[in-house]
Amino acid sequence: MRRLDDALRAALARAEALSSAPRLDSSTFLGLRDLIAGASGIAFDDRSRFIVERRLRPRLRALHFDDFETYVRFLLHGPEAAAELERMLEAVVVRETYFFREAQQLAAFRNDLLPALAVENAATRTIRIWSAGCATGEEPYSVAILMQESGLFDGWSIRITGTDLVGSAVEAARRGVFRESAFRSTPEEVRARFFRRESASVWRIDDRIREAVDFEVANILDPTATGRMPEVDVVFCRNVLIYLGEPARRSAAAVFYERLRPGGRLLLGHAETLLTLGTPFTLEHVGRDLVYVK
Predict the structure, then answer these.
(1) 45 DSSP 8-state letter
(2) Domain that holds residue 69
(3) Could you report the per-residue pLDDT of 54-74, keeping only the tens digit for each?
(4) CATH classification at residue 124
(5) Residue 148 main-chain phi, psi, to 5 deg
(6) Which of 19, 52, 140, 229 has its CA 20 to 30 A from that of 205?
């Protein structure tokens, strides 16, 4: 009975806190939505207002703001607006990622694309790969593991670059420390070979793999940031474009096309397509998957 009373009191406390929490009204949401889109290309529709409200309430509490209008003014004109803009993006951006996500596509990369690259780049013995929107690093590290396992590139100059617009995600990627949820698609033998257990649920990636990947803070829509990158053979940008509005998707596709070498490949998530955007990419079958080719 006492346990039931405690649960009831806790539920009432949560309901009271929710009823007094700041609300994001429609007009303020429109301004905030435009701010998010301008900074990241991420497009929230009207149905997302309550999701944004819930995700940003902790930022209002941290700054001791009573309403979202004050928060938006702070993002526009506050003394630490740039730093808060990054914290805001970190709060609203979806970060669903784990090792060896979309296994069929990675199998095509391992079994078909890597052997092709070994032939195409034999003269230079150099490969450059860009993981755009890499979050906390699981994707580029997965690519590095597959390349190491292939045995095709011993003695080659391999450089994998992961970029993300949120600095805290990039710092986490550089540390190379992951919890159990990151391994939901990782074979146990792969984890045993390339990770070291640090505690019951924490694993650190092997230095051989960590040192094969560089991480940078960069917005894929910012030509100043992406223009510094060298020409690459492959771009991975998976499950990023689905969150962008159409103008941002067009801009991202143009950036990828510019950064790829002739014949370079772009790999998107299975829920993403460029077919409606009229880009100069062509589609190519790679194993049982499709990639975009410059």
Answers:
(1) -
(2) 2-92
(3) 999 999 999 999 999 999 999
(4) 3.40.50.150
(5) -65, -45
(6) 229
